Amino acid sequence: SSNEHKLNFKKSKEACLSFIQDALLQKQWKRAAEFLTCYVESLEKDYSREHIGPSEMIWRIGSEILWHHSQSSMKEFNCFIEQMKTLGVKRYLKVCLEHVFHLLCDGQIDEAYQNLSLAESWRFGEQTAIQDKEMKLVQAYRGLLDYYSWSKQKNILLENGEDGFSDLAVEQEMHGYFRKAAVNLKEIIKIPGVWDIFVKCYVDLLEFYGDHNEARQVLNEYAYNSKFPANPNAHVYLYQFLKRQREPKKSLISALKILHDMVPSHELMIEFNTMLQKSKKRKKRRLGLEVIFAALDYAGWKENAKAWSCLARQVKQIVISEKHLDWIKQEWSSRKDWWPAFHFSRYLAKRNWQENKSLSYEKALVAGILLGKGCKYFKYVSHQGCKAQLKRFRVLKKFVNKHNPVYLRIS
Q1: Which of 226, 227, 385, 392 is the most interior residue, by most CB within 10 Å?
Q2: Cβ distance 242 to 254 under 8 Å?
Q3: What is the per-residue DSSP string for 192-207?
Q4: Which DSSP state fits 121?
Q5: Distance in angstroms (rounded) separating the CA atoms of residues 315 and 309
Q6: Of 360, 358, 336, 334, which Cα lies nearest the Cα of 347?
Q7: Which GO terms describe its biological process (predicted)?
Q8: What is the rounded CA–CA span in Å between residue 86 and residue 18?
Q9: What is the pLDDT of residue 274?
């Protein structure tokens, strides 16, 4: 019966998709291809009255299999994608974009550009308006490739020096790429979204031609416009631009403060801490201590010698001056229960000593101040340093012993 046929078809289709998923997860591309063939054939042989259109799964699964299959070629992939383009009008531009990505991965930049140009000229009634965002994305990627061509021409001219800039034909070609790239890149970054690569390229174009005000406006809009999603990279790009423009430290600190609030573990936090430590304002130096403590809360920073050096330097300054010990106490109070095992175990002391003696020195200084001279990490490292007759470790041991009362005051 018709109902029985529908039920059996549904079960077999679901089972086949399950097998395909399993094969994909195990990277069994040949097996996945065989099941996908069965899946497509079952769709073709379905005689139920229920209309089953071309599935997006066939496009996405097929693309994944062909890209990874050992016996697949770019020619076969291109053929498959062209078929997928003709099967679904609603997905046409998305399929075109995926095709372009694969062409770029294969190094076929000219072919990718040609496909983007063809996609940009595509029109299909009301679908053109419905897919307006996809069309803008197509144009943006074409702008990205125009930027790539502009960058190549720029490098050729710069490498040739002053003589190179006398070649008007090359220079005019470069300016032509600039105009095309700028128009498309400018359009995409007006739409709220995450457009990191497009923003970076557009700002590079503007800076090269000296339009710093426009570049600043673009970056400020990207970082501070509430319509755009929160994006740490937006503040990184703004900070880097301000730094290139040699803006006052107040502006640089402001940009990095927002980045710190969003991503306390960002690599720029060392730079931020250094900048704050050099400030004459007590409030900023206090923030510097908070910044470096927060960064070291993350596992990725555990063996960062620069970070430990920054913390050791500031802690040492505070201990010597005997001012602002309450800063250390405030930061340590929320960490004293878990930092000893996280950072200052005997196991880590041995490993740090073997791998990086400079790191172990900085950590031992911090450990000695925060946990006192009885700390396992400090005891092991200072003992090994004195045993190896390294003068700086003897000085370290004397310093911690001398200021051991500080540990009692902050603990």
Answers
A1: 385
A2: no
A3: SS--HHHHHHHHHHHH
A4: T
A5: 10
A6: 360
A7: transcription by RNA polymerase I
A8: 27
A9: 96
Sign of CA dihedral 197, 202, 204, 207: negative
Would you say 198 and 192 are in contact if contact means Cβ atoms under 8 Å apart?
no
User: In the structure, what pLDDT confidence band is assigned to residue 52 with cuts at 50, 70 and 90?
Assistant: very low
Q: Which of 40-44, 304-308, 404-408 has the highest mean pLDDT?
A: 304-308
For the segment 273-281, the average pLDDT, to the nearest whole number, is 94
**Encoded tokens for 335:** 């960490």
Nearest Cα to 1, choosing from 49, 44, 41, 45? 49
DSSP 229-261: PP-HHHHHHHHHHHHHTT--HHHHHHHHHHHHH
* Two tokens, residue 151: 């960058």
Residue 149: which of 120, 124, 184, 122 has the closest Cα? 184
Please report where in the chains the tokens 């340590």 appear, as a residue: 332
pTM (global) more than 0.70:
yes
Residue 356 contacts by C-beta under 8 Å, 6 or more apart in sequence?
Answer: 303, 305
In the predicted model, what is the mean pLDDT of residues 238-261? 96
Say if residue 313 is exposed, middle or buried (CB neighbours under 10 Å; 0-12, 13-18, 19+).
middle
